[in-house]
Amino acid sequence: MAALDRHLATALARIDARDERRRLVATGAGGPARLDRAGRTLIDFSSNDYLGLARHPLIAERSAEWALRLGGGSGASRLVTGTLDAHLAVEARIAAFKGAEAALLFPSGWQLNAAVLAALMKAAPDTLLFTDRLIHASLHAGAAGHRQIRFRHNDLDHLETLLAARAGEAGPRLIVTESVFSMDGDRVDLARLGAIARAHDAFLYLDEAHGTGVLGRGGAGLSADHPGVADLVMGTFSKAFGCFGAYVAGSRALIDYLVNACGGFIFSTAPPPAMLGAIDAALDLVPAMDEARATLATRGVHLRARLAAAGIDTGASSTQIVPAIVGEASDALALAAGLAEDGLLAAAIRPPTVPPGTSRLRLALRATHTADDIDRLADRIVARLAR
Ligand SMILES: Cc1ncc(COP(=O)(O)O)c(C=O)c1O
């Protein structure tokens, strides 16, 4: 056993002692908004497949068709021989979908944020980096090595105060936030944020991982309803799009810079044809899914009303992500375990993912949940918390 192995074992033992050991559990498909686990079918309130597209036949078929026609792998990075006509065609479709000059594909949203934010900071290391307190872990990875000036979550007054306090300092300004926050389901006030960014000559980086496909004109995200406000918009195809991969959209100059300076793009093999085919099919489907988006919004309104009527805090949620905030980590874990007995899968989210005292169930709704599914969930949460 190498010395490092002993450190790994010690670290794992510490995780065990804190009761925080996580394990991978195999999960199978179990029908619309259902999944199979350990021989049982559960109603799934944990996945991010908001439009129910992950098992859509058109996505699976086109993915298979492009793999059969173009191959299983791309063979090299995009700048060497990895760029196919299909990459350029899909990127042109994404740019049109987002109303942007240009777009670039990445293998995942995590990799994109980690690589793209780092590349922006590299262009001007004296950049003042303003970040919402609740930005995703991948954005922290991108900001590594740089001081973040963090504003209270979605508190734009606080952001303005911080920007004003540094008005005399040198260096460009960069604001990083999300359109829909993954643990709270609340959204940013993009019109006001845009005005603040303009007033302070700040570049606005917007993560639309949870907004893409769900919000905005044709599901193009919140930014689609506020053209020109964000300088850079990223999103992922792994959630509402039901497939995999991620995009960054913005000006031609921004995308050209990333092609030339973003290490996570340059030194990574080009996304494979199967991924491109799946995204291409989802781009055919998503803009036409206004009815599914309306159903999803209605389900959220109904669930929040049911939980509020029972005195359960759902925070500032206004989207398909509804937290049921219960307080202590042990309470959230007990509630999730109880719901699993009832046939309902809902993830318990605890510190450090959320602040202490705000442990919760993160309820992720889908257009394919029925009204009865939502009522059953609300009934069981209310009954279990009343015990
Ligand atoms: C806000 C946010 N950004 C980025 C990501 C990463 O996206 P992906 O799952 O495609 O890696 C996630 C995924 O959980 C997310 O919630």
UniProtKB/TrEMBL annotation:
Cofactor field: pyridoxal 5'-phosphate
GO molecular function: 8-amino-7-oxononanoate synthase activity; pyridoxal phosphate binding
Keywords in alphabetical order: Biotin biosynthesis, Pyridoxal phosphate, Transferase
A GO BP annotation: biotin biosynthetic process
Keyword set includes Cytoplasm: no
EC identifiers of the protein: 2.3.1.47
Pfam family for this entry, one: Aminotran_1_2
Domain Aminotransferase class I/classII large, first and last residues per copy: 41-381
UniProt KW Glycoprotein keyword: no
Pathway(s) per entry: Cofactor biosynthesis; biotin biosynthesis
Reactions catalysed, as given in the entry: 6-carboxyhexanoyl-[ACP] + L-alanine + H(+) = (8S)-8-amino-7-oxononanoate + holo-[ACP] + CO2
Alphabetical list of InterPro entries matching this protein: Aminotrans_II_pyridoxalP_BS, Aminotransferase_I/II_large, AON_synthase_class-II, PyrdxlP-dep_Trfase, PyrdxlP-dep_Trfase_major, PyrdxlP-dep_Trfase_small
Class of enzymatic activity (EC top level): transferase
Self-association state and partner proteins as the record states: Homodimer.
Assigned protein family: Belongs to the class-II pyridoxal-phosphate-dependent aminotransferase family. BioF subfamily.
PANTHER family linked: 8-AMINO-7-OXONONANOATE SYNTHASE, CLASS II AMINOTRANSFERASE/8-AMINO-7-OXONONANOATE SYNTHASE
Protein name as it appears in the record: 8-amino-7-oxononanoate synthase
Higher taxonomy: Bacteria, Pseudomonadati, Pseudomonadota, Alphaproteobacteria, Sphingomonadales
